[in-house]
Amino acid sequence: MGEIVGPVLIGRVPRRHAARVAARHPHVWLSRETLLKQYARHPDIPLSEYEDLSWAFASDLIYGDKRAGRFHIVTAVTRDPGKPTHFKMTLKNVRNSERLFLISAHDLRPASLRKLVQSSKEIRPPS
Q1: What is the pTM of this model?
Q2: Closest by alpha carbon to 111, among 91, 89, 88?
Q3: What is the pLDDT of residues 65-95, one digit of tens each?
Q4: CB 51 within 8 A of CB 68
C-alpha cells in the first residue's frame, strides 16, 4: 500500500448493512490514522489485507454496538490450526451519514465472539 494522505476506499458493505445504521452509502473508508493504529496494535495483520476487505464486508454476521452509528461485521477465516477462526471489523457511520469508516479490525477468539453475540442482539440505529 502506498503513502496514504487522506481516507482511502477499502470496500463496500451490502446496502442492507449500511441502511441499518442509516448510512447513505455502502462504501467503507479507512483513514491514515486508523491504519497506523491498526498496524501498531495488530502487526500480525499485513497492511495489504486492508486494501480490499470487500470479501469480509459481505458477511451476514452483523452485530450492533451500544454506541450509536457503529456496528460489527464478523467473518469466518481459514488460518493456521490453533489460530482464531473469525475476523471482526467495527464500522462507524460518520459525517452525517455520508461515510462509513473502518475503525478497528482484528482476529476474534471464540470466547470474544460469544461475548459479542450475547451483548448485541440487533443493530441499533443512530440516535
Answers
A1: 0.83
A2: 88
A3: 888 888 999 998 876 777 777 899 999 998 6
A4: no
* Contact of 67 with 77, CB cutoff 8 Å: no
Nearest alpha-carbon partner for 23 in 102, 124, 99, 122: 99
Q: How far apart, in whole angstroms, are the C-alpha atoms of residue 113 and residue 25? A: 27
Nearest CA among 91, 90, 14 for reference residue 54: 14
Query: What would the grid cell of residue 1 be?
Result: 500500500
In one-letter notation, the amino acid at residue 23 is A
Cell of 82: 490453533
Q: Which residue has the cell 452483523?
A: 62
C-beta of residue 105 within 8 angstroms of C-beta of residue 88: yes
Q: Which of 35, 75, 71, 36 is nearest to 51 (CA)?
A: 35
Average predicted confidence (pLDDT) for the chain: 83
